[in-house]
Amino acid sequence: MRKLPIVVALLGLAAAACGTGSSGGSEGGASSAPASGGGDKPLAGQKIEVAAKWTGDEQANFEKVLKAFEEKTGATVTYASTGEDTGAYLGPRIEGGNPPDVAILPQPGLVQQYADQGALKPLAPEVQAQIDQNYTPYWKELGSAKGQVYGVLVKAAHKSLIWYRQSAFDDAGAQPATTWDDLIGKTAQSLSDSGTTPFALCAASGWTLTDLFENVYLSSAGPDNYDKLAKHEIPWTDATVATALEKMAQIFGKKEFVLGGASGALQTDFPTCVTQVYGEKKAAMVIEADFVAASVGQSGAKVGEEAQIMPFPKVGDAAPVVLGGDVGVVMKDSKGAQALLEFLASKEGGEVWAKQPGYLSPNRNVSPDNYPDNLTKQLAQTIISAGESVRYDMSDLAPSAFGGTDGKGEWKDLQDFLRNPSDVKGAQKKLEADAAKAFNK
Amino acid sequence: MTDRLDGQRDPGGDQAAGAAPGPRATPPDDAPSPASSPAPASSAASSTPPASAPASGSAAVRARLGPSPAMAGIFLLPAFLLLAAWMIYPVIWSIGRSLYDATGGRFVGLGNYVSIFTDSSALTTIKNNVIWVVVAPIFVTALGLVFAVLTERIRWATAFKLVLFMPMAVSLLAAGVIFRLVYEQDPDKGVANAVITSVHDVFSSDHGYPGARPRENDQAPATVQGGAVVARQQAQPGSPVLIPLVGLPQDAVKDAAPAATAPAEGVGGTVWLDVVRGGGGTLNQVDPQERGLAGITVEAVSGGSVAATTETAADGTFRFEGLPAGSYVIRLPASNFTAPFNGVTWLGPSLITPAIIGAYIWVWAGFAMVLIAAGLSAIPRDALEAARIDGATEWQVFRRITVPLLAPVLLVVFVTMIINVLKVFDLVFIIAPGSVQPQANVIALEMWRVSFGGGGNQGLGSALSIFLLVLVVPFMIFNIRRFRRDER
């Protein structure tokens, strides 16, 4: 009895310590096989670590590109997955003075943030030459901070799409819409009348709502206002924002338009809403980007047959084209790191990657013929031909405290708006308050 | 029992502990000293004989007994270095960091601490932490106690304990994933709602057409009024009322008979699904491919009161028999369209914290049970038996004997749980969907989020971590003091 409480306490502490079990990420795996030092392999023996958020198939595809680079240069490249939250992975490594050589950032906002921290190295002239050759100036500016070029967009995501289920449209006799009013008044209404909920929203993942907002806003308010709002040069209380939110409320405000109502949608994570459309066949449309294709396949639907896409309909004068994408940056300056980015920004590297499914290149010299399917060919063509009027995902340009954090800023405010779509003014006020806080830092 | 042990504590105790190397080291010339100095010997209970010898010893004696201070220092050094590197330095550094702004360049004094108590999202985390601390440890300890006492009495107690202890073998992360599924809204996926809805369905069931509704435009012959569908046209004998409905999937009516127009006699009409698969068909007219809706309750209302009630036939037609002539409003009451009970929204903003606490209790109750059961087995049986012989009921034995004797163990479990609960992170992070994370947020999670998870403000993050430390420290001190007291 006398010793018992100590034993109990030790047990308690031990259990408390064990309770927060962590999955130790293994750092190993760097093959030590030294490449044969040939004259045609200038980087033989160099080791490069590259960190990106991709896992699963996307990782495997990217590793094929890395392999092509290894074969070309003789360098050894190790891949580290950052998981969904790249900032959370890189932040401590930067603090600790041990960043990866190359990082692929999911948001240009992070380029700005890390450049301010001095964590990025400017791109070498050879990489910039590739950018000048292969990209429109908009993309170069996107990867720049304080007049220096730090990043290059290596992978693009097309975010101005609506995926729909062909059989649901057939049952309802619905047609893809080209204007927002038709989408709401005709397509969605006839789907709803036929007993199929028109939209599945992944509202628990806040970024799906910001994507929707950006498309509606870019089309209704125009690219100039879009740029201003992205830089917070006009406030979120602006009338153009109110218009866009009111348009969104035409979906949010109708219980029968959203699968599970607002409450159900707010519990739905991405990509569950894709499953709800193509797997469970409970809804007809999901407003999301091209990368949904992977989840569509898992749900057993075939892209191009049961799974169809329509371009995001125009809300104002022109249909929007919003892109997302991943920006490669150098965090530890070395010949190998610069060479890897040069490769990724080149036509050669882009075409290796383009042959893998699920990849879309912002590189205008990567021929659409390289893509494995017609859908991606079309998408690539729209990006290339849209040229200067394309805009980057606004929330990804904002400081991540506003545009990229679960449960905070724009994500939270749009979720609250979905909960209460009648309060446009209140939503605007909250958005403005959060934006002001994040931008003034 | 511990009280008696506590009573033994005396000022000489520290010296006694210091001399623990044992009586064999006592030099022979010091041997008579206990006898010659009766005061300390009597103060120390006879149960601790080694304490008596050095209690009277001088500093010189002690120096000869223990290792030299230098030696002690060398032995302590590794532990001290590790502690300094991983505990002391980070704490001090965090305190310093918490006084600077997000970039770490500008000194803001206590500004970060002020914003903890003014920022609404940080205040929510504090509120949630209070709820956690108040509710979770009590439930865990109480449940553990109940399990421990009950398992003592049953056959197969070990198997039972094993099952209850099993959640401890699962990482909190996995437990979070499990409970995320348990709390799914869809009863086909979430166990919690599956249980609730099946219990609910035993007592009430719906046969209607949830989701069916009239079209929403001015030409539609019917509208929704307070959940019921009401025909715009007044029903007259001889002119059938048409009530077209939409919003049902074709599969729901695939076995239904084709809709028919009601015969033009008496007060009657048709309720049907005015949708053709693949589109087409004439709006608000009964088309051959369209299906009637059978079994819908129809009311004829006159002057605010229901004059007659009937049901639709298989082809969707209805007729009121023997209704006095006049004009009636035809109404389909809301009961036809009540949506099926869909369970509880566990993962919504209002229930999220209780839901996560439920998962936490599931994980830790077994752990508490094992600790309390260990304490229970150490309770002297004679005390319990004496009480029973004296005629105490089982409840009285539990209430008056078992619980007081177990009090020290219960307290340890309780305080350990409080410390554990204060730093809860993983379960909240995983169970709460992104949209309700703000409502479920707790300090530890907020700390991570603002510093690393996108917020990028390590000043505020450090302030939160120090705040959390300040909250935990009193309980740590309490626990440590208890252990030390129990050690003697």
From TrEMBL, chain A:
One Pfam family matching this protein: SBP_bac_1
Location of the region described as Disordered in the Swiss-Prot/TrEMBL record: 22-42
Highest taxon of the lineage: Bacteria
Record-linked PANTHER family: ARABINOSE-BINDING PROTEIN-RELATED, OSMOPROTECTIVE COMPOUNDS-BINDING PROTEIN GGTB
Family: Belongs to the bacterial solute-binding protein 1 family.
UniProt entry keywords in alphabetical sequence: Signal, Transport
Signal peptide region: 1-19
Nucleus is among the record's keywords: no
Protein's UniProt keywords contain Chaperone: no
Protein name: Carbohydrate ABC transporter substrate-binding protein
From TrEMBL, chain B:
Compositionally biased region (Basic and acidic residues): 1-12
GO aspect biological process, one term: transmembrane transport
Subcellular location: Cell membrane
Compositional bias of kind Pro residues: 24-37
Region ranges (Disordered): 1-53
Membrane topology field: Multi-pass membrane protein
Record's keyword terms, sorted: Cell membrane, Membrane, Transmembrane, Transmembrane helix, Transport
Residue ranges of every copy of the ABC transmembrane type-1 domain listed in the record: 126-479
Transmembrane segments: 70-89, 130-150, 162-183, 359-380, 401-422, 460-480
Taxonomic superkingdom: Bacteria
The keyword Transcription is assigned to this record: no
Composition-biased stretches (Low complexity): 13-23, 38-53
Primary subcellular site in the record, as a coarse category: membrane
A Gene Ontology cellular-component term: plasma membrane
Assigned protein family: Belongs to the binding-protein-dependent transport system permease family.
Record's protein name: ABC transporter permease subunit
Protein's organism: Microbispora oryzae
